[in-house]
Structure formats: structure tokens, C-alpha cells
Write a structure and sequence with these properties.
The complex is a heterodimer of chains A (about 325) and B (about 200). With about 325 residues, chain A is α/β, with parallel strands linked by helices. Chain A has 10 helices and 12 strands. In chain B, helix 3 packs across helix 6. Chain B is elongated. The chains are: A alpha/beta (about 325), B alpha/beta (about 200).
Chain lengths: ~325, ~200
């Protein structure tokens, strides 16, 4: 009877231990995971590396995970890092809707998540969301666009990923200005998924039916570079103005060289550092975080380019 | 006989399980509850412009201009409102002034103390009203686009109902009262008079 009781207690203890899938942490530095939507874009590389660097400066071990723009891959990362006993996640989501369940799983495992750059459609699961103020940046960019075109002309808009809220916040900010000028006509609005080669292909195809455009507004800098390449191939790079968004190095150089008109500077460095510092404060006991922290975006033009460095670094 | 009882019990259990796993609701009720969840920026902005702006606290415009030229950083930090991490501060100001110039994009007015303001009549954009008044908190909006739509609708109301009668009546030398929203970038202060998005303009007859 006594033996049975001992077995029963042992089995119960083992089952309870099994319920907790997170590995007991050995003594040593705490760990932050940096999960990035894609490392195939230099802007996100800077975001990920800046987050990891700041986490290390604050005394944490930091590991970068690449979700390859794939929500399932992202889910795998979350499962693994929950099991591996990480203490916080600095997270750049792949999809505003699809990434919610991953963050929810982390929350259920008592793992705080700090979203960077892209928001998710939930106020309940992430500890805080640090994003660029895309809308305001594109309002300012839209005003500059209208003035540069003297309030009239034909233009094309290249959108980013349609499942990303940033795509629509940028587009909405831009249109909240441009649509009030009736002589500005949008002849095409197409998605090029934030991708340089796709932007080139899309613009080449649009120009076949609309050869007389005056400007191209792009939802990010990679697409602006792709659009510029298409214009060079068509011999129209001097007559068509290109506008981007990000403040990526190649576009900053292109603005300096008078190839691209303007971009909106969002700083992946500042965003990543803010997220890492918030996570640090959380792990030291702070709990009252603003659910959303927007970061100002500034317009960089051929006139003020000397005041800015690439990716928001000091010039 | 025994088998019959067994099957009957099984059927009852299965029936109960099915009944509890399916929830039937009228389609119009579902549609209504979904539409209740959709944020209506138009009515939110319209309610604010119709019912809140008269009583909205505002800084005296002349004092505002003196203070931002004396010590912009400190003053903005104390009296301005900003969204997240930003160099831009938003304020609601008011004052009596006289029209000194009418241009394509602005009507310039002179306040007491020889300070100038530019009332925007063409480029009525941005978040000056939403963020200067503090009427909405970004933390309450799951999708930031809803939060941004508030600014779009507020500016639309100003563009459609405040600016046209003002432009129609404005003449150089007219005296008026203006209440409006201003955005100042502390790293790039305006060289000319700051731009005001008008909320209320009353001519002093």
C-alpha cells in the first residue's frame, strides 16, 4: 500500500514537471529572442542587429531568428524559444493578423513580447508595440509630393504587403493629402510586396499602358529603388519623380545623387533600442507600459539630406 | 433489450453533445454585433467638432508665441502634447487678431503684441487637432488605422465647414477671434508665424 502511494506521488510529480515545457534555467545571463520577419531586407537586418546589440549591452544573451516572411516559420520559432526558456521576445511580426496567435502563446507561457515596426491586431497579447508613425510620415511626404508636382500630374502608387497594417497606414496618410488635389490623378495602384524586383516588374507593366506618368509613390525604399531601375530602363529617370519610405542607405545615396526625390526616415535603430530597453525594464519589474509607442518619421528630401544619416543614424 | 437501452443512452449523449456544440443565432443579430465593433471615425470626429471645441481649453495665442520663441524645448515639454517618441508637440491656442494678408494657402493674422499666425486654408492635414486636444488615446485602438482615421475626419470637417465660410468672408483689416490647433517641431521651429488649423473663427463685427 505504502509502495503504491510512493509510486503515485512520483508519477504525479513527474506529470506536473512535464506540464511545464519551459526548460528550467541554469544560472547565467537572461536571454532575449529577436524574431525578425525577414533578414532578406537590409532595413530589417539593421532592426534585428540593433535589438540584439542593445540587449547585449544591457547584459542579456540575444539570439536572432529569421521568420523568412512566413507565419508558420514564425510559429516554429515561438514554440522553440518558449521551450528553450527565453525571458523576453523582441518581435517584428510577419502579419498583423496571423502573428497574434504566436504572441498569445508566448503570453500564456509568461513570456513578454515587444513588437517592433509592425503592429499586430490585438491590444491584449503584446506587452507593448513600438512602431513608426507611418501615417504622419506619409502625410508630410504627401504634402511634399503635392508641392513638388505643383498640385497636378499623373502618378502610380506601389503598395507593400497587403496584410501589413504599415502598408495601409502609409497609403492612407499619403491619400489623406493627395486626394484633395483634383488635378493629381492616380493611374495605377498595385502591390509589389515591399520587394525591389517586383516593383520593377510592376512599374514596367504599368508604364506600358500609362507611358506619361509624372511620379511614383512607393510604400518602401526597396520598391523605390526597383521603380527607379524601371525608369532608367525606360529612359524616364529624369522626368518621373520617385518617392520612397524607410531611409535605407541606397535610397539616401540616391537622394544625395538627385535620383530619388524623397523618403520618410524611420529609424530601425531607435525602434529596436526602445524595445530592448522596455523589455529590460519589464524584466526588472516594471509593468505599466503604454500599449503602443509610435516613433516620429521625418521627411528626407534633396534639400535637407545633409541633416540625416541612413536608417536614422546621426550624420 | 439491454442493447436497446445502451443505444438509446448513446443517442441521448450524442444528441446532447451536438446540441451544446452548435449555437444558432439570427444572421441580422450577428451582422449588428459585428458592425457595433467597427469604429466609426466620422461620427466620433463629428461629435467632437459639434459638442467639444467650444469648451476645449486653449492657451492664449500671444503668450504661446512669446514662450515658444523664448524657450521652446521647456515650454513644449510642459504645455504641449506629443504622440509617442517625437520632436513634434501639439497645442490648442486662441486669441483675437486682425487679418493682414490673404494668400493661396494661408490667411495671415496679427495678434496683440505684433505677433503673427498663419491660419491654414489649403493644407489642412496632420494630427494637430487630435493630438493637441488629447481627444483620443492610441492605446485604445487595436488597429492604428482607426486612430489615424480620426485625424482624417477632423480635417475633413474643418476643410468642409470651417474654411469655406472663413475664406468667403475674410478681408484684410477684419478683426476676428480664432481657436485652433498648432504643431511645432522642436528641432525645426517655424521661421514665419506658426500654421494654425482653425477650429473656430468668429468675426468681430
Amino acid at each position: 500500500m505504502r509502495k503504491r502511494a510512493v509510486y503515485l506521488v512520483t508519477i504525479l510529480a513527474l506529470s506536473f514537471a512535464g506540464c511545464n515545457s519551459r526548460i528550467d534555467k541554469a544560472q547565467g545571463p537572461k536571454k532575449m529572442a529577436v524574431v525578425i520577419s525577414t533578414l532578406n531586407n537590409p532595413w530589417f537586418v539593421v532592426l534585428g542587429e540593433s535589438a540584439a546589440e542593445r540587449a547585449r549591452e544591457l547584459g542579456y544573451e540575444a539570439t536572432i531568428f529569421d521568420s523568412q516572411n512566413n507565419t508558420s516559420k514564425e510559429a516554429e520559432h515561438f514554440e522553440n524559444l518558449i521551450a528553450a526558456g527565453f525571458d523576453a521576445i523582441l518581435f517584428n511580426p510577419t502579419d498583423s493578423e496571423g502573428s497574434v496567435s504566436n504572441v498569445k502563446r508566448a503570453k500564456q507561457a509568461n513570456l513578454p513580447t515587444f513588437c517592433m515596426d509592425r503592429e499586430i491586431n490585438s491590444l491584449e497579447v503584446a506587452t507593448s508595440q513600438i512602431t513608426s508613425d507611418n501615417f504622419s510620415g506619409c502625410v508630410a511626404l504627401g504634402e511634399y509630393f503635392v508641392r513638388k508636382l505643383n498640385k497636378k500630374g499623373k502618378y502610380v502608387e506601389l503598395l507593400g504587403l497587403v496584410g501589413d497594417n504599415n502598408t495601409w497606414n502609409r497609403s492612407k496618410g499619403f491619400h489623406s493629402v493627395v486626394d484633395h488635389f483634383p488635378e493629381l490623378e492616380m493611374v495605377a495602384q498595385q502591390s509589389a510586396d515591399f520587394d525591389r524586383s517586383k516593383a520593377m516588374e510592376v512599374l514596367e507593366s504599368v508604364m506600358q499602358s500609362n507611358p506619361d506618368i509624372d511620379a511614383v509613390f512607393c510604400g518602401n525604399d526597396a520598391m523605390a529603388m526597383g521603380a527607379y531601375q524601371a525608369l532608367v530602363a525606360a529612359g524616364k529617370e529624369d522626368s518621373v519623380m520617385v518617392f520612397g519610405f524607410d531611409g535605407a542607405k541606397d535610397v539616401m545615396d540616391a537622394i544625395q545623387d538627385k535620383k530619388i526625390r524623397a523618403t520618410a526616415m524611420q529609424s530601425p535603430n531607435q525602434m529596436a533600442r526602445t524595445a530592448a530597453e522596455m523589455a529590460d525594464k519589464f524584466l526588472k519589474g516594471k509593468r505599466d507600459f503604454s500599449k503602443k509607442t509610435p516613433l516620429q518619421v521625418k521627411v528626407v528630401t534633396q534639400e535637407n539630406i545633409d541633416e540625416f544619416g541612413a536608417y536614422g543614424s546621426d550624420n | 433489450m439491454k442493447k436497446g437501452i445502451k443505444y438509446s443512452i448513446l443517442v441521448v449523449i450524442l444528441g446532447l453533445a451536438l446540441y451544446n456544440s452548435v449555437n444558432i443565432e439570427p444572421l441580422d443579430q450577428i451582422k449588428k454585433s459585428k458592425s457595433d465593433l467597427i469604429f466609426n471615425a466620422v461620427s466620433y470626429a463629428s461629435d467632437f467638432m459639434s459638442n467639444k471645441i467650444e469648451t476645449l481649453p486653449a492657451i492664449n495665442a500671444s503668450d504661446f508665441l512669446v514662450n515658444i520663441s523664448d524657450d521652446l524645448d521647456n515650454y513644449a515639454e510642459q504645455k504641449g502634447r506629443k504622440l509617442g517618441i517625437s520632436d513634434e508637440y501639439h497645442f490648442i491656442i486662441e486669441g483675437n487678431a486682425t487679418i493682414t494678408a490673404i494668400e493661396e494657402e494661408y490667411v495671415t493674422v496679427m495678434l496683440e503684441g505684433d505677433k503673427e499666425l498663419r491660419i491654414a486654408t489649403d493644407f489642412v492635414f496632420g494630427n494637430a487637432i487630435r493630438d493637441g486636444s488629447g481627444m483620443a488615446n492610441i492605446d485604445d485602438y487595436q488597429n492604428t488605422m482607426d486612430f489615424n482615421s480620426i485625424s482624417v475626419e477632423l480635417n475633413n470637417i474643418v476643410r468642409e465647414t470651417v474654411v469655406p465660410p472663413f475664406k468667403k468672408k475674410a478681408k484684410i483689416g477684419d478683426a476676428l477671434y480664432v481657436k485652433g490647433a498648432v504643431t511645432i517641431d522642436s528641432t525645426d521651429p517655424p521661421l514665419n508665424g506658426p500654421k494654425v488649423i482653425p477650429l473656430i473663427i468668429k468675426f468681430n463685427d
